[in-house]
Amino acid sequence: MAATKASKEQKYDRQLRLWGDHGQETLENAHVCLINATATGTEILKNLVLPGIGAFTIVDGHTVTGEDVGNKAQAATELLQELNSDVSGNFVEESPDKLLDNDPEFFHRFTIVIGVQLPESTCLRLGSVLWSAAVPFLVCKTYGLIGYMRLVVQEHTVIESHPDNALEDLRLDQPFAEFKNHIQSYDLDSMDKKDHSHTPWIIVVAKYLEKCVFVCVLLYNEMFFSSLQCIREGILKNENGVPEDEENFEEAIKNVNTALNPTKVPSAVEDLFNSVQCNDITSQTLSFWVMLRAVKEFVLNEGNGSLPVRGTIPDMIADSQKFINLQNVYRQKAMQDAATVSKHVECLLQSFGKPPESISEKDIKLFCKNASFLRVVRCRSLAEEYSVDSVNKDEITSCMDNPDSEMVFYLMLRAVDRFYQQHSRYPGVYNYQVEDDINKLKLCVNNLLQEYSLNVNIKDDYIHEFCRYGAAEPHTVAAFLGGSAAQEAIKIISHQFVPFSNTFIYNAMSQTSATLQL
Amino acid sequence: MADADEPEKKRRRVVELTEKMVVDGGDGHNCEWEGRWNHVKKFLERSGPFTHPDFEPSTESLQFMLDTCKILVIGAGGLGCELLKDLALSGFHNIHVVDMDTIDVSNLNRQFLFRGKDVGRPKADVAADFINSRIPGCCVIPHFKKIQDLDETFYRQFHIIVCGLDSVVARRWMNGMLLSLLVYDDGVLDPGSIIPLIDGGTEGFKGNARVILPGMTACIDCTLELYPPQVNFPMCTIASMPRLPEHCIEYARMLLWPKEKPFGDGVVLDGDDPEHIQWVYQRSLERAAEFNITGVTYRLTQGVVKRIIPAVASTNAVIAAACATEVFKIASSAFIPLNNYMVFNDVDGLYTYTFEAERKENCSACSQVPLDMHFSPTSKLQEVLDYLTESASLQMKSPAITATVEGKNKTLYLQSVASIEQRTRPNLSKTLKELGLADRQELAVADVTTPQTMLFRLCFTS
């Protein structure tokens, strides 16, 4: 209905400015599974319901206790649904272990599964099922003042990573033909003062580059810097030696260094070009890799070693016409390059019998525009993390060399899981348990370090502290994790912005955090 | 009508669900139930190796937090809603909240204490109602006011103040208010007069949380450079050489609207009125067509006119949670508080950076010494005004300057009252010498960015 659409646009206006209508669409088509409606779980889900995910299902076999008011499956579902009538909520009053026993394929329908406060055994079982089904799995835990997240996804592609400080793609070091022609059309020396002072700085730099081109031997740093000097001096004085004081020339000086960054394929993208998925295209290959392969072909042929032109330029002092004309030179080249890439895409699709319409022009254009910023996130499976054969010893021991590293909390969480396996409870839940549990937990710690042959030392203070925590789930830590995890889930669902990989630890005591690769 | 019943039915169901959980406790508080504060008690009643040196485990801390501790939350928007909820669920049951705004539809994607039916009502009132009805025992008192409408008697009653503001000016005012409450005995700061200020801010996927102990640690003004002044497009670009769709929109807003007065004389452009935005949008499109500029959309028009900052629930949840953790730490002494500034960004993975912001020796707000300003006696008053507004460390909005000249208090320039502005405007083009000012003389400056008048010492350069 038109009315509903308009009111949704109003309601979601502030977030649409971040991920666009197409991003919002992916959210509205998503079905999120939350396992365990604890404080952490409901906080995460609240931050997904508010922005309007399509549907959620809570899986929780626990009954209500005094500590966790209104946080169990049905109660939680009703309370969360009430936050946003656009979202449909469901619940299953069953433990995840039971579901894994009787109907593991239950989990295949979800866009992402978020598991909260899961014991190790359940976590590993679920991890294995979801890995095989290629369903992204986000593990979250609030334990005392520590927050923990683990992302488990085999391969997650991101076209729109929206980098914070992207370099412009101006091609000043290798101007394409149309750009060269455009530069030729300017004669700075014969312009009147008004035109001269409203010439875009890109043209100014390009002109002086031409003058100094014979000294721009980029092999030798010394000569490179002296050519920069030449440009600066050239810009600052006109032919009569009278210094320029025009703003556009000042912009040119300011931007000379970054403008002369050599145009090349970023190493991250090169790595993607060299990956297996890019080179072994089959009819099953996702469109991301098909488009990437097409771009690779472009780079090797028509692009002469460069990616398709991005087509955008920053704002700069200039009169409207000069700016728009210059902008159009880049825009048209970008369209041209995208069309060339399109032909490569068509060829590839045809080669394994797929119709060329399988990948739209719109998608190809978006891909080309973001070619420098493509990212692929790959996380190891939980099985790999937990196996003695493939544990990431290097990461653990090198982090533990630094006394301030958050790695110690990861190890403590693993030790606490062991405690739970052995004693069917967490350490220090009741006051009378705290003192005895310190020794029991210490045994678990040593047992853990031994099993993985980890030659690290964990101070007794941490063991004491983790007994003190008594598996508490304080609300402010749950809320911090709730916001963090929800946004990571949104990144996974929308394929915009880059998810963390693969372990995130938040320490509310010091208000610090770390991302670890385990 | 079925539609009108639905929200009410839902509300009753929610209260029912919440009440189901309430069990009559034996300690006289009939809104407490077994295990309600278990999570919190572990931190208040148990000793540990990382606690604050002053911390003593005690069963009384929880009662203090529930009964006595008074917290003030400034702002009931994106951060405010989250803060109220976090604080209430952490055991703070005496909370006041101040917010001068009413609820808008665009708030609903993150300000979860509000529903569609609440649009138009004051945020403070609705937020307080929601928390009070859902969290048994919690008492939130709302104030539908500007922070400047409340005085020191009001602010002095709180143990801790948490800000979830969206304006630097308001932050600076709050900062100044708490500094003005400080008591010095023979030059020594009385710690009892310090009210900790916890400040949170968010913008899109970025945010920060900081702890300020007025008089002791870096204040808002000490780090004013962290809030760079808003960049506006140059007038000549807007007026004669637009290049971006934004320039076209500013043209319609700043030049066409005052000229054409499309909705009548004296009618100010209201960014919340869709008809006004539609008008600006149409005129922007025309302007853009003239110059072959693409990209003007209704959404962009609204964004430029209202200076909209994108926002999501998640960032607000994270920053509010960090702030609430600090409130808990300070109220309970359970842990050493954040020292003193944390930055958060989850555009690419999750990134936090924690550092100690330093006090500025000559901070315009907290250094207590009159600031020197250096001008030649032949400088014009306008130059002094420009310095006050443009300097990165002062960033005043519309300062009013007074001085004692020949024994009498003289207003040199004041912008906010039209008649006085007219009368004092000629002073701007007079030199400091002509105005009768002397070397080493004190100038008093008042501005919205500070509740107290700031003193400057005029130092003549040769």
Question: What this model shows, in words?
Answer:
The complex is a heterodimer of chains A (518) and B (462). With 518 residues, chain A is of the alpha/beta class. In chain A, 51% of the residues lie in helices and 10% in strands. Chain A has helices at residues 2-11, 13-28, 39-49, 73-81, 96-102, 120-132, 177-184, 193-197, 201-212, 221-236, 247-259, 267-273, 276-279, 287-300, 320-351, 361-369, 382-386, 393-400, 407-423, 434-451, 460-469, 475-494, and strands at residues 31-35, 55-59, 88-92, 112-116, 137-143, 146-152, 156-158, 375-377, 503-507, 512-516. The radius of gyration of chain A is 28 Å and the shape is elongated. Chain B is α/β, with parallel strands linked by helices and 462 residues long. Chain B folds into 3 domains: 41-204 and 312-338, 3-Layer(aba) Sandwich (Rossmann fold), CATH 3.40.50; 235-306, Orthogonal Bundle (Arc Repressor Mutant, subunit A); 371-460, Structural Genomics Hypothetical 15.5 Kd Protein In mrcA-pckA Intergenic Region, Chain A, CATH 3.10.290.20. In chain B, 35% of the residues lie in helices and 18% in strands. Chain B is built from 14 helices and 15 strands. Chain B has an 8-stranded mixed beta sheet with strand order 3-2-1-4-7-8-9-10, with helices on both faces. A 5-stranded mixed beta sheet of chain B has the order 11-15-14-12-13. A two-stranded antiparallel sheet of chain B has the order 5-6. Chain B is globular, with a radius of gyration of 26 Å. Classes of the chains: A alpha/beta (518), B alpha/beta (462). At the A-B interface, helix 1, helix 2, helix 3, helix 4 and helix 15 of A face helix 1, helix 2, helix 4, helix 11 and helix 12 of B. Chain A: Keywords: Ubl conjugation pathway. Chain A: Residues 12-512 form the THIF-type NAD/FAD binding fold domain.
